[in-house]
Write the structure tokens for this entry.
Amino acid sequence: MKKLRIEVCSGSECVMMGSMDIIEAIEGLKQVKQQLKLRAQIEIVPCKCLGPCKNENLAPVVRINDELITQATGDIVMSKIIAAIKD
Amino acid sequence: MQGIYTSVTKIRRQVFAAVAKLAYEHDEYSSIEEIPYQIIPGEVATYRNSVFVERAIIGERLRLAMGLPLRRADEHSALSKGVEEAAVPKKFFSAPLVNVISFACNACPTNSYEVSNNCRGCLAHPCTSVCPVKAISIVNGKSHIDKEKCVRCGRCQQACPYDAIVHYDRPCAAACGMDAIGSDELGRAKIDQEKCVSCGQCIVNCPFGAIADKSEIFQIIQSIKQGDKVCAAIAPSFAGQLGPLATTEKLHEAFKILGFDDVVEVALGADKGAVAEAHHYAHAVPDKQPFLATSCCPSWSVLAKRTLPDLVECVSESDTPMIETAKVIKKRNPNTKVVFVGPCVAKKLEATRKLTAGYIDFVITFEELMGMFVAKGVEFGDLNEEQPLDDASSDGRGYAVAGGVADAIVNNVKAFYPDKEVLVDRAEGLKDCKKMLMLAKAGKRNGYLLEGMACPGGCIGGAGTLMPLNKAAAAVKQYQKSSPYNLAKDNPNIDE
């Protein structure tokens, strides 16, 4: 089974810009597990400020394994997760 | 839609952070004219059909966030008009609190039923059989609703086996439990300020982001900059709202960076209220009054008094947790300004009432507070867990979630009067609150304790919150558990 570690920035700017809703979206994937044929272990880690938002409008920030996603949204993160599990 | 992060949420919060930053970093505010270009950069529209409209809407939002009135759309006036006058260290905004930015409104069709493409023109067409006013006929092989005749009962929608009949309603009007939303001459939403109780649900339910309330961020920061002693009275629903790193032990330090002097839990005032109402219920219901309605939710208590003008005395007269807490703070230090920080738009209005105005200097929501943290660059991840919160009991902290107020009162009635039985009914959302009140009016809730919450889910579902409901509810549970006292009556701070 594949393992994914997803760090969701919980710094102030990212929380304001909806990073907790991204966690909600990732957790929501469990409900559609069957439709998506999801077989992976997903670990969600709310983490300290990852940094990039400090320059212009890059919040919220999410890191999936080693890939950094800026201006993340629930739909972007969900599709990245599904892509990462497939290949 | 409330509880889902969308572009509307994003824009609203960007505006709060921008106003807080402007106030903290400047002493002269003409650069407000630049903010719409910072929030909406470039030449291509992102959200609506024109980048100019987008910026104009940001402009109006900025004005409201500074406590200024909207501008007239048919009259030239600078965005910054009145900004310097608004830069005062005291309450500034005037009614109306909740405003429709008319040119952002989509003029959605009002309550109606329509037949969609899903209609198969079936043989049975039960839609026609159930319509009580013969408004549905078969035209060109499909159902057709005569809008003149339709009474919008919704029976056809329930009867259709293909889900082909769609109910349209304005999201703002559907969310309004007071029927306060009508239309202006261009079909755009217009709030009947006589009916509105400022619960704020229309603000968070408008998918076009056309409704906003006024804020006091700008004036609070003026007060801080002037060197006033400012104390935050934080509502129990704050648990979890500021993210997982914002533990209660870090709050004092975080507020200090913003320029606040101290933080006190409003759950302390809730404890006082719970004890007072427990005694009140035990002594007066049902002998002296038929029932007791709670009073901590301001929208609910206004609704209750309006619906039951003859039974006003049944609505609890004990001060709301906000006021009780402010009294304690002012007693400790009369020169302190009190900022209520909560999930609630209606508290902004409650704080302007004559009876309460002396205690509460400002009111902001968690969303607005988050804007201040972002403007000041406060990172909870970098703070130390220095000072735990210990003002309140688990009972008082439970006020944040629907059912929690009644639970707290019941717990304390049981502790004081073990033989007294308490009957409880409760409702969340003003529509359901109204139904409960009608039952009470008809004499069907005699002997009851009635808890009303204007927002679905209770305070954690308030218009000024940031977290999805289930996350917030879990965080409040945790916060309740961490209290040193279970019962409100066991909290020694209530004697203060």
Observations:
- Chain A has four helices and four strands.
- Chain A has one domain: 2-86.
- The radius of gyration of chain A is 13 Å.
- The interface with chain B takes residues 10-13, 15-21, 24, 46-49, 74 of chain A (CB under 8 Å).
